[in-house]
Amino acid sequence: MTRQALIFDIKRGSSEDGPGIRTTVFFKGCPLSCVWCQNPEGLSSQPEIDSNGKAVGFYITLQELLYRVQQDQPIFTSSGGGVTLSGGEPSRQMDFAHHFLQALKKQHIHTAIETCGLFNYSSFAKKLLPWLDLIYFDLKLFDDLQSHRYTGRTNQPILDNFSRLINEAEIPVIPRIPLIPGITDSKENLSGWAGFLSELGVNDCTLMPYNPLWQDKMQRLGLSSRYQRDTFMTQDEQQASINTFTVSSQRV
Q1: What tens digit of pLDDT does each residue of 36-94 get?
Q2: How far apart are CA 118 and CA 138, in angstroms?
Q3: Contact between residue 8 and residue 41 where contact means Cβ atoms under 8 Å apart
Q4: Fold (CATH) for 4-251
Q5: Distance from C-alpha of 134 to C-alpha of 26, rounded to nearest angstrom
Q6: Which tens digits make up the pLDDT trace of 83-120?
Q7: pTM above the 0.90 mark?
Q8: Which pLDDT score, from 0 to 100, does residue 231 have?
Q9: Crossing angle for the helix pair 235-251 and 187-199, nearest 10 degrees?
Q10: Is residue 1 a contact partner of residue 95, using CB atoms and an 8 Å limit?
Q11: Which of 167, 179, 236, 250 could serve as a FRET partner for 187 with CA atoms 20 to 30 Å apart?
């Protein structure tokens, strides 16, 4: 049994990572290297020190993590909330996540995961899926060459894992597309995902507007990126993406 995990944050009182009011645990380490990564402090699988001298990432035991999240159980109960595993990529620390989720379910706490989708499916299905109530599954670049260019990895395992979960999981699997201006918000990309999801019979998809606040975190970590937009998406840009995705879905 893995007795400790490397995480970089525990966010209490979240209303953005699942139903109700939740506590979100951010695991460190990710197999992707997206040029717009919203949580660059979760990329490395090692603790880091930022330019302010702050430790980024710390090890925590299973018992300590359970103690910290269980303090919010009355809030979970009253709001219909629970605990969400995020990152980074939680499945990179599969054994710890397994024991953590299992312990949460024994306490009747609702569980969710936010995943980039790049994991070993058989391990995920055996160790995590039985203890999850909800999966948020990020879909980024439909074209494989674009996926390599902007995330550093092929998208084929991600497509395969999503398809298998849709067919096999008995819990909600909600796809999410981050809208990155000039990259993922293109007509080609959104149309590709719309067709892919329609063929699988998936009607629920979340389009997440671009947020530039990650760039300050990159600078503090001494990291650089090929993507430099420092402004939020406008309402017109967001609506254009929604219209493109909706129209593409209806045409399939």
Answers
A1: 999 999 999 999 999 999 999 999 999 999 999 999 999 999 999 999 999 999 999 99
A2: 10
A3: yes
A4: TIM Barrel (3.20.20)
A5: 16
A6: 999 999 999 999 999 999 999 999 999 999 999 999 99
A7: yes
A8: 96
A9: 40
A10: yes
A11: 167
* 90 and 26 Cβ atoms separated by less than 8 Å: no
- Dihedral pair phi/psi, residue 176, rounded to 5°: -135, 130
Contact predicate 38/90, CB 8 Å: no
Question: Which residues make Cβ contacts (< 8 Å) with residue 185, sequence separation at least 6?
Answer: 179, 210, 237, 240, 241
Distance CA 27, CA 12 (A): 15
Q: Which pLDDT tens digit goes with each residue over 175-216?
A: 999 999 999 999 999 999 999 999 999 999 999 999 999 999
CB contact at 8 A, 44 and 33? no
Domain boundaries defined on the chain:
4-251
How far apart are the C-alpha atoms of 202 and 96, rounded to whole Å? Answer: 31
For the chain, the average pLDDT equals: 96
- Return contacts of 126-133, CB within 8 angstroms, 24+ apart: 127/94, 127/95, 127/97, 127/98, 128/91, 128/94, 128/97, 128/98, 128/101, 129/165, 129/169, 129/171, 131/98, 131/101, 131/102, 131/104, 131/105, 132/101, 132/171, 133/82, 133/171
